[in-house]
Design a protein that fits this description.
- This protein has about 160 residues and is an alpha+beta fold.
- The protein has 2 domains: about 1-75, no CATH class; about 80-145, no CATH class.
- Helices cover about 35% and strands about 10% of the residues.
- The protein has 6 helices and 4 strands.
- The chain has a two-stranded antiparallel sheet. It has a two-stranded antiparallel sheet with strand order 3-4.
- A hairpin with a 2-residue loop joins β3 (about 140) and β4.
- α1 packs across α4.
- The longest helix is centred in the middle third of the chain and has 22 residues, at about 45-65.
- About 5% of the residues are buried.
- The mean pLDDT is about 80.
Length: about 160
């Protein structure tokens, strides 16, 4: 995992080690792919720089999708992941386009796990179709992620 985070943070030293070093434990059938990578990967070439940026971008997207850690350059010292739901301030969430509030419930199909919501105001956000979201209610004009009065579903 450490190498994935390094690459996502634009530290491409692992790729340099793959190009120039001895790769241990590589299956025989992957040797030709390694040879092709070593020929094509040439730091300083525009194609390699493009490749590096694309790898970093895709890994950040992958990390964000899996654990919610967006790895923005100015936020690398605070990688809260999903804990950002309760650790980040509302302003920080708004600045990162990671919150939508004052939604209106249009339809709930409990058996299908389907909830349809409607925006009640224009609000810029970074959510995409299929993104994992966590919904919580507005209580006494405040949004509190860990509010003790949330209704709890009883077992059975």
């Amino acid at each position: 995992m450490a190498h994935i985070y390094q690459l996502a943070g634009k530290d491409f030293s692992v790729l340099d080690r793959i190009k120039n070093g001895n790769v241990v434990g590589l299956p025989v059938y992957k040797e030709s792919a390694l040879a092709q990578f070593r020929l094509a990967y040439q730091p300083g070439r525009i194609a390699t720089e493009y490749y590096q940026e694309m790898v970093a971008f895709l890994l950040r997207e992958f990390i964000n999708t899996k654990v919610g850690n967006q790895l923005k350059e100015d936020e690398e010292d605070q990688p809260n992941g999903f804990a950002g739901l309760w650790l980040d301030t509302r302003q920080r969430k708004e600045d990162g386009f990671r919150v939508i509030y004052d939604l209106e419930t249009v339809e709930i199909k409990e058996g299908l796990g389907y909830i349809r919501l409607k925006l009640t105001r224009k609000l810029d956000h970074a959510f995409r179709k299929g993104d994992l979201v966590i919904l919580y209610p507005k209580i006494k004009d405040e949004y509190e992620v860990l509010h003790p009065s949330y209704p709890q579903r009883q077992p059975g």
